[in-house]
Structure formats: structure tokens, C-alpha cells
Amino acid sequence: MQTPHILVVGGAGYIGSHMVWLLGQRGAQVTVLDNLSTGHRDAVLCGRLVEGDMADAALLDRLFAQHRFDAVMHFASCIQVGESVSDPAKYYVNNVGNTLTLLGAMREHGVRQFVFSSTAAVFGEPLYSPIDEQHPRAPINPYGRTKWMIEQALDDYGHAYGLRSVSLRYFNAAGAHPDGLLGERHEPETHLVPLVLQAAAGRRPHVTVFGCDYDTPDGTCVRDYIHVMDLAEAHWQALRYLSEGGATRAFNLGNGDGYSVQQVVDAVRAVTGRPVAVQVGPRRAGDPARLVANAALAREVLRWRPRHASLEAIVRDAWRWESR
């Protein structure tokens, strides 16, 4: 792949900032567009940061007119499942409406390669595990529905306008840059690994485990955790795939190994050497017992291989960031 110029929308956020760093390491030219509502200016470690919103059609027109982008990467979705239920308008406006505005600017300026951050939430309640790409899509919350709507729109845009895209369905992103340069800074934090690490660091009194009576070996939910740097590598491979003429396609991203909530707590205790207080709460509605990816298609087609697959590696890198 020749040296590309990539527009990274949402590149100041958790996953986007790791992607921007990797693009810089690979020699790509990077322009980041981020409204900094959840991202951080100091997380953009290379390239040019443009503070603005993908809802701003005039700004997008100026950006695309000034630069010849080879591809666009989209990390700018709202992502909290619970909030999507209590405030669905926010999710339909941003995740659907604003994304369509971005796609419209790409059409207008002839940019025809797009990498989209999707989610395992498009599947809804799993009918089997591990979940492959053929699993029915039946999202059960507005967050998952908005992502599935864009996936369907991308199929339609591909047929009608020649826009080729890759949708990457994350399972559970976790971890941090191995050198402690970048990490997770959500406010409020809702992801399990940083919550448990914050309890170990004394930044919160305890971590709550929602349900301990599931049909799993230790009674707690099982999830597929994937290191954020492995996610970034998958996006790079998706860019390569599109640059070589690959057709519009969706891929699941996960390690294929499930770890329970209790195993995450135990791993944090082992890595940090610190106690973690745990409180057991009631089950949350819509939480399946097991959610694990079958990522064989990404391995085959994208030639992607997770390099930080162990739970201990994920926790160790996240702890290095938390300790800062």
C-alpha cells in the first residue's frame, strides 16, 4: 500500500487515538476530525487535528476540498448502550444522521474507501457462540440498531455509488498502548477492565458484578476481550484490503476466547498485586451469558492476527496506563 492520506473522524478518542498513532508509525499522512466531546486533544500523537463535527457539512466540504484523502476511518459514534435507551434521539442523530452527512461529503468529493467501527451489538441476543458473520442481525437497543442501519446503508452505497467499505464488529475493546502512551479515558467509565483497575488503584471503592448465577463455569458473564492495538492493526489491514480493490464486507473482531467477569477481577488482582473489592448486583436486562467472536473470516481475508491475545497482556497494558 502506497503512503495514504487518511481522514480519521473521532481520532482523539480511545480507539481512534491508537489508530492515529499506528497510522503515523506506518508512515501515513493523517488528518483527525474530532469535536472533543469525548476525545482528548493530547491523545492525538501525530498528524493534524481539526476540531469540528462530522455534522458540519460546510466544514467537511472545506476539508475534502483542501485534501485528497485516500480513505476515511470512522470512530465518532456514541457508544453507551444504556444511554441509547434513555436518549435514543442522540444516537439516531449522531450515529445515523451525522454519519450519512460524512458519507455525503465523501460522495461529493470522490472518496470511495471507508472503514467503519461497528459492534457486536448488531447481533442482539446470541443464538449460538462463538458468533460468526452469518449470525442473524437482530439488535435489541438503539445503539446496536444505529450501527446496523449504517452497515445496511454502506451496502446500498456500495451498489449505487461505488463506495467500498469495511465494517469491523468489535466485541470488547480493552487494554492500552504497551508503552503507556495512550489509554482509556471515558467519562463516565462503563467498561469492565478500567473499572476493575480503578478499584485496584483506589479510585473507586469497589466494582459491581452484575449477576453471578449465569450458566457459565463461575456464574459470571463471559466476554471476548480484544486488545486495542490488535483492533488498530485490524483497521490497518482493512485499509490494505480496500486499497487492493476489496469489496464491501463486514468482519467480526475478537480473540475467540471468552473470559468471565470473575476471571478479569482475578487477573487484575494478579497483575497489580492489589485487592479488589467486589459487590454482586442483580443481572442487567439484555446481558447474555456468553458473547464470544468467531473471527476466522478476518484472519482469512484481512490476514489479521491478534498479537496481544492473553487477558494478562490486556490487563498489564491497561494497568500501566492507569498507573500514570
Q: Round the Cα radius of gyration to an integer and report it.
A: 19 Å
Strand line-up of the largest beta sheet: 3-2-1-4-5-6-11
CA distance, first residue to last residue: 36 Å
Q: Decide which structural class fits the backbone.
A: alpha/beta
Q: Can you tell me the CATH class of the domain at 5-173 and 226-253?
A: Alpha Beta
Helix content: 25-40%
Strand content: 15-25%
Subunit structure: Homodimer.
Family: Belongs to the NAD(P)-dependent epimerase/dehydratase family.
EC number: 5.1.3.2
Keywords: Carbohydrate metabolism, Isomerase, NAD
How is this structure best described in words?
- This protein is α/β, with parallel strands linked by helices and 324 residues long.
- It has helices spanning 14-25, 57-66, 81-86, 88-109, 142-161, 192-201, 228-243, 261-272, 296-301, 311-322, and strands at residues 5-9, 29-34, 48-51, 71-74, 113-119, 164-170, 172-174, 207-210, 222-223, 225-227, 249-253, 259-260, 278-281, 290-291.
- It has a domain at 5-173 and 226-253: 3-Layer(aba) Sandwich (Rossmann fold).
- The protein contains ten helices and 14 strands.
- It has a seven-stranded parallel β-sheet, with helices on both faces. The protein has a three-stranded mixed β-sheet with strand order 12-9-14.
- Strand 1, helix 1 and strand 2 (29-34) form a beta-alpha-beta unit.
- Helix 2 runs parallel beside helix 4 and helix 8 packs across helix 10 (311-322).
- The longest helix is centred in the first third of the chain and has 22 residues, at 88-109.
- It is globular, with a radius of gyration of 19 Å.
- Keywords: Carbohydrate metabolism, Isomerase, NAD.
- Belongs to the NAD(P)-dependent epimerase/dehydratase family.
- Its cofactor is NAD(+).
